[in-house]
Design a protein that fits this description.
6-stranded mixed beta sheet; two-stranded parallel ribbon; single chain
Length: about 270
């Protein structure tokens, strides 16, 4: 592929790194199917700033922004090169769209970025820049950011939004006691299905208004930082771009790992 779709993925946790973990096979397969881009711009749910920002580190560090995991997960590294030139291009595109952006020369890759990238591109040989979220500016802002960045797709850049389609950690921690095969509740499936209907129909404005339109929106996202990367991807897909559903797994019962490719070629497998 020379023009990449804009993609939203469930980034998962370090527990997805071992072979056979839920979601691992999907991300590995997705990387193989997409092929190696010139660079990656990833909007992670775990980096928030006051105003638009992009990482410009030449050698971004691996950030262990999690707690309570086995010691070996704090020794994992993802030594991908940074993408300072891409960071400047991102800043220019956002600035031209009326969203002045700063370049952070020290920001590393948090687990919302390096966990999925380690599975998709294990050789860590693709330059990566990370895009920050501005939770307080709301969903429409993130759709607009994605639209402003859409030209990157014609420049060999893979735009990834990394979050989770449902993300209620209080519920997830409770369900952990039920084991890996905990059943998925109706509220999570209903919300997941509503997003699927809106995304596959290209109804990006409905996705923006999800708090008012989607069933169980507050239960699915007590805080919507893990939903906002979906809007970056939808915006980067282009006006009216339909999302192709690529994955429908759930972790810990109600944690959706759904993935979508916006403006995807037919050959990209669902």
């Amino acid at each position: 592929m020379t023009r990449y779709p804009a993609i939203f993925i469930g980034h998962g946790s370090p527990m997805q790194i071992p072979a056979g973990a839920p979601g691992t096979e999907f991300l590995q397969r997705l990387g193989r199917e997409l092929g190696k881009p010139a660079a990656i711009l990833i909007a992670s749910a775990h980096w928030e700033t006051e105003g638009p920002a992009v990482s410009g580190a030449e050698a971004p560090e691996t950030i262990y922004d999690f707690g309570g995991f086995p010691p070996e997960f704090y020794r994992v590294r993802y030594p991908a090169p940074g993408a300072p030139d891409l960071a400047q291009r991102v800043a220019d595109l956002l600035g031209n769209a009326g969203m002045p952006a700063r370049i952070d020369p020290t920001q590393g890759l948090d687990h919302g970025s390096w966990v999925p990238l380690r599975l998709m591109y294990p050789d860590a040989d693709v330059p990566v820049a990370q895009l920050a979220l501005q939770h307080h500016l709301g969903p429409a802002h993130h759709l607009a950011m994605g639209r402003a960045l859409a030209p990157l797709r014609d420049e060999g850049v893979l735009i990834l939004g990394a979050g989770n389609l449902t993300h209620n950690l209080g519920d997830a921690f409770r369900r952990m006691r039920e084991g890996p095969n905990a059943p998925t509740d109706a509220w999570a499936r209903d919300f997941d299905r509503w997003v699927a209907d809106a995304a596959t129909a290209g109804k990006s404005e409905d996705l923006v208004q999800y708090r008012a339109l989607a069933p169980h929106a507050r239960m699915a996202h007590p805080r919507d930082e893990h939903y906002l990367p979906l809007l970056v991807a939808a915006g980067a897909g282009g006006d009216g771009a339909k999302g192709k559903r690529l994955n429908d797994e759930f972790l810990l019962g109600n944690l959706s790992q759904a993935a979508y490719a916006f403006d995807a070629p037919d050959k990209l497998a669902a």
